[in-house]
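If you are new to this repository, start here. Below is one unmodified record pulled from the training split, so you can see the exact layout before writing a loader.
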Amino acid sequence: MTAYLIRRLLLMVPTLLGISLVCFVLIQLVPGGPVEEMIAKIRAANSVHGGQVKQISPEEVENIRAYFGFDKPAPVRYLEWLGNVCRGNFGDSYVYQRPVLEVIASKFPVSLFFGLTSFLLAYAISIPLGVRKAMRHGSAFDVASTTVIFTGYVIPGYALGILLIILFAGGSYLDWFPIGGLVSDNFESLPPLEKAADFLHHMTLPLICWMAGDFAFLTMLMKNSMLDELGKDYIRTAMAKGLSFRAAVWRQAFRNALIPVATGIGSIFALLFTSSLLIERVFDLDGMGLLFYDSIVGRDYNVVLGIIVLSSLCVMLGRLASDLIYVAIDPRIRFD
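And here is the target side for that same chain:
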């Protein structure tokens, strides 16, 4: 197992290099860039009332290119960027004029909260619900819950958010929740407990939209996995020896049924950079999805590369964690 872990960790290095290189090349092929953005801003600032625009000299253009480091060949820029990344420096944002890691950290808490909370709630609810549905397969409870689950699953998160706002946030019916934002305007003046309540009050609707898809998938995966286990010989043997159906489910089948569900637990690392641009737009949240979109539109290449590299690293760590969890649940599995 130790050799397997070492191999997987070593393989992450060329994988990250390949991802960063491909993304860097694609960025170079995209028309426009920070140099063009800066030139456009200077021309707009230099425009006169007659509608004429002061021309920018070639020397000024070269100075701008040098300021952003675009006076060097692309391979040199990539190697310099890679060397800085190895030292923990992802460069500065062209838009925010701050280090990339600071920019990402400023948007990080929103996405982390929604990603981590939706992940924990989805697993905490879907696992027992899936078991319950398997135990009562074909009953009115199973049919009704499946209908509700798939209704939430087929509706996109942003569309569900708009529907929830219309129904529960003063759109046309009830006014139980705020329309958007993280906290109320008077948040700083509230006592600690009221601050927590105010934050959760604002987060309820977007959190439902965030977890709707994963919740439906995990519930049905858990149900089908449990049904598969309940049809196996060892369950029939256990019940023939006097074990009750409920005891057979929880003592014998439950752990084995968890195997396909638990493999996704390692994705918790990827949740560090989870995002949903459209949900953030609907609820006026300033998270990683909006930052990534704005960085692409604004040609803020250092931020784009930083988010891609860090999120890729988290995904690979998550897959490695999934393998370890798989082994912990099913000791028969060995990675050599």
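Two things worth knowing about this chain: The mean pLDDT is 83. The CA atoms of residues 45 and 53 lie 9 Å apart.
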